[in-house]
Design brief:
The structure holds 3 protein chains of 3 kinds. The radius of gyration of chain A is 26 Å and the shape is elongated. By secondary structure, chain A is of the alpha/beta class. Chain A contains 13 helices and 30 strands. Chain B is α+β, with helices and mostly antiparallel strands. Chain B has one domain: Histidine kinase-like ATPase, C-terminal domain (Heat Shock Protein 90, 2-Layer Sandwich). In chain B, α2 (37-60) runs antiparallel to α3. The longest helix of chain B has 24 residues, at 37-60. Chain C is α/β, with parallel strands linked by helices. Chain C is globular and about 35 Å long. The N and C termini of chain C lie far apart (34 Å). The chains are: A alpha/beta, B alpha+beta, C alpha/beta. The interface between B and C is medium-sized, with 27 and 25 residues.
Chain lengths: 464, 139, 116
């Protein structure tokens, strides 16, 4: 028995609009990409090989699933045209099918099954033809049964079309509530109904109300209430006194203080109501209030503290910088490229030289341990172009996916808060932790974080 | 650790294969921690494709000169990143080409688009009378 | 690059072997069944071990000149490397792509009958 998973772009076009960063086949349902539920089902019916067939680009899916060795099966990919008939689709994959029995799952539907049941003998013995069908797709068997029809116990199987936010929300909640009994769900669960990923930091006063599913690298702050029925993705911060109930929070999302997210889907800075389909793009309202306060009270002291900190570093590192950089320059190991970066003032750019010493010999090691590559930037703190610690400077020329929603959520710094916290410093992950600190950090804690960043940066390089 | 290899080839399509094979053998020197064999294969193939496109373009746009045209390849090998630069003496060009309008069945004009698509970072600069296009990707 | 022409079921099969790049693309473009707008061709890419945009351009350009582009050139057996070149440019949308040459021939034959 082989499996063909066939999906057409038109069926999942709404995902591209609603969640532009996610390939529809990788849309997370209860923190697990959609396609994995189908792969699990294919394994359940005993398929050693799965072919993913699409009429659009499958690059992202291919990068995620690769050749299937992770699941112990073969996964391959092929293209089809939007108007292809079932016969044409089978013809295009004739070599793959290889005269064996084939199960074709077509359409963008959530397949309800129960992993404890025996679908293998059922799929092997059923007559050729449609197994189950729904408004958004079908599961069909082609080729003669592999074994005579047996008294196989009936097992539940039905399809729920994923045709928009509302059905997506329903499917996610259903997967969460029926839980790990019926599906293979990610995360470590100490008890049923509560699955938690790696590196989740929770304040003692956080209240968890089952069922919940929480991804990796998540911070839940004081007095937050999570659940019931909360699905929280990876690299998420839920700030103080906020409630997330009957909601889905996507990867790389920051939920500010004292917010009530109930019956919503939060992704990035977009908050959608799955029932009405209304989406609100937040200009980070929670952040806005938080920052205004600190802008008014803390802007001047912060600038002074940052300038003083920079001055101290400039003095302390002057001798090592002059010696090491000169020696490295002579050896050709000090390469610098100048680029334009977004400034804290909206619409303006600053140009910064980026130096990349390789930690290979002793000099390079000294340079990266003392962050000498950042030394020239310290002077920019004195001229108030950079903060001593803030956001990672974003390149100006490219349309950056993490470009700040507004200037208040971005303050470029010599060091970044992400470096201080050793947060995975790629893409959206870093942006989240930076936004959190932009709201919460005061002049004094900034100094502590600078020290942390200074100490942590070299480690980050050796373990990228 | 960073090593640099420089290779100057005649600007003739016959040498595209030399450029490609050199690039694949250089690219196969890199290994990434926690990267699968298929990631590594993809990495090598992406460089093979990008260099083929860049070299073909260089040869195609080499005008009439007194001396036969050459293309100089520079490979900069770091632990997990490879940068390949091509230097030629052709007229200046822009790398900001739009996506090919595939529905009109174009026969040309895919090269730079493919390079930008398969590489992490592509830069172009003009130095004196030379074009330098640099392509880099991290494994 | 080696170009081999055979036929089955009234359809010309053009099998390519080797590298399809700027050096070899004109050879493919000039091959009579590929260049003739009236002949439906199955292009067997199984043994193409490298293809860049010059090769892609030759295939796309040849398809454009066929009476019915999507059925004038039917592709079979492309490996992952070749598929990647198609997908970076979205050119896979223009073609019917089969993983088996005989299936591609059957498809091209029925399309030809349907047209005549």
């Amino acid at each position: 028995m082989k499996t063909i998973l066939a999906l057409r772009e038109a069926e999942c076009a709404w995902v591209r609009d609603a969640f532009p960063c996610v390939h529809p086949l990788l849309l997370p349902i209860c923190n697990k990409p959609f396609i994995e539920f189908l792969i699990d089902f294919a394994i359940l019916v005993g398929s050693p090989a799965v072919r993913i067939l699409g009429d659009g680009e499958l690059d992202a899916v291919e990068r995620y699933c690769e050749n299937g060795s992770r699941w112990g099966i073969d996964i391959s990919y092929a293209n089809m045209q939007t108007g292809d008939s079932v016969e044409t689709m089978l013809g295009k994959n004739r070599r793959f099918c290889d005269k064996e029995r084939v199960m074709m799952v077509s359409g963008f539907s959530f397949v309800r099954y129960d992993k404890r049941r025996d679908y293998k003998s059922l799929a092997g013995s059923m007559p050729e033809g449609e197994w189950v069908a729904g408004p958004g797709g079908s599961i069909t068997l082609f080729g003669a049964p592999e074994k005579p029809e047996a008294q196989a116990a009936d097992a539940p199987l039905s399809l729920m079309a994923l045709d928009g936010m509302a059905s997506y929300y329903r499917a996610s909640m259903e997967a969460l509530e029926t839980g790990a009994d019926r599906y293979v769900l990610p995360g470590y669960g100490g008890e049923p109904g509560c699955a938690i990923g790696r590196n989740v930091v929770m304040s003692k006063s956080v209240e968890i109300r089952k069922p919940v599913s929480i991804g990796n690298n998540v911070q839940l702050l004081g007095d937050a209430i999570i659940g019931p029925s909360a699905i929280i993705g990876s690299n998420v911060i839920i700030d103080r006194e906020s409630t997330v109930e009957s909601s889905i929070v996507f990867d790389n999302t920051y939920i500010g203080e004292q917010l009530e997210v109930i019956g919503r889907i939060a992704s990035g800075n977009r908050l959608s109501d799955p029932v009405s389909g209304v989406a609100v793009t937040m200009e980070d309202p929670h952040l806005l209030s938080g920052i205004r306060k600190s802008e008014a009270l803390g802007a001047l002291p912060r600038k002074i503290v940052h300038a003083l900190g920079a001055l101290i570093l400039i003095v302390l590192l002057a001798v090592p910088f002059l010696v090491v950089s000169t020696l490295l320059r002579l050896g050709g190991g000090w390469r610098s490229a100048t680029g334009d970066y977004l400034s804290g003032k909206s619409g303006e750019t600053i140009s910064l030289g980026k130096v990349e010493p390789d930690a290979a010999n002793a000099l390079d090691t000294i340079a990266s341990t003392l962050s000498l590559d950042r030394y020239p930037w310290l002077f920019r703190v004195l001229t108030a172009e950079l903060a001593l610690i803030g956001s990672t400077p974003l390149p100006a020329e490219t349309q950056h996916p993490n470009a700040p929603a507004n200037a208040l959520a971005y303050r470029p710094g010599v060091f970044s808060y992400a470096e201080a916290e050793q947060w995975p410093a790629t893409g959206g992950d870093a942006a989240i932790v930076e936004r959190y600190h932009l709201v919460h950090s005061g002049p004094i804690s900034d100094i502590g974080l600078v020290v942390k960043a200074f100490v942590n940066r070299p480690h980050e390089k050796t373990t990228p | 650790m960073s090593s640099i290899i420089t290779l100057t080839l005649p600007g003739d399509p016959l040498f595209t294969e030399v450029a490609r094979q050199t690039t694949t053998s250089v690219a196969s020197l890199l290994t990434g921690e926690n990267r699968s064999a298929s990631d590594e294969t993809q990495f090598i193939h992406d460089f093979e494709l990008a260099i083929s496109e860049a070299f073909t373009n260089s040869v195609k746009y080499a005008g009439e000169h007194d001396t036969p045209p050459t293309v100089t390849l520079t490979f900069e090998i770091e632990k997990r990143r490879l940068t390949v630069s091509l230097l030629d003496a052709n007229s200046p060009f822009s790398i900001d080409t739009p996506a090919p309008d595939i529905e009109s069945y174009p026969e040309n004009g895919y090269g730079l688009w493919i390079i930008r698509k398969v590489m992490d970072c592509v830069t172009y600069r003009r130095e004196g009378n030379s074009n330098i296009i640099s392509m880099s990707k991290t494994l | 690059m080696i170009i081999t022409e055979t036929s089955a079921n009234g359809i010309v099969i053009v099998a390519l072997e080797g590298r399809l790049d700027a050096l070899s693309a004109p050879k493919l473009r000039g091959s009579p069944p590929v260049a003739d707008p009236k002949t439906a061709v199955v292009l067997d890419l199984e043994k193409v071990d490298f293809m860049d945009s010059s090769g892609l351009g030759a295939i796309v350009g040849a398809a454009r000149e066929k009476g019915d582009p999507a059925c004038g050139i039917v592709l079979s057996c492309m490996n992952n490397k070749v598929r990647r070149t198609f997908e970076t440019t979205n050119a896979q949308r223009l073609f019917h792509i089969f993983d088996d040459t005989s299936a591609a021939v059957d498809f091209a034959a029925t399309r030809q009958i349907a047209r005549t």
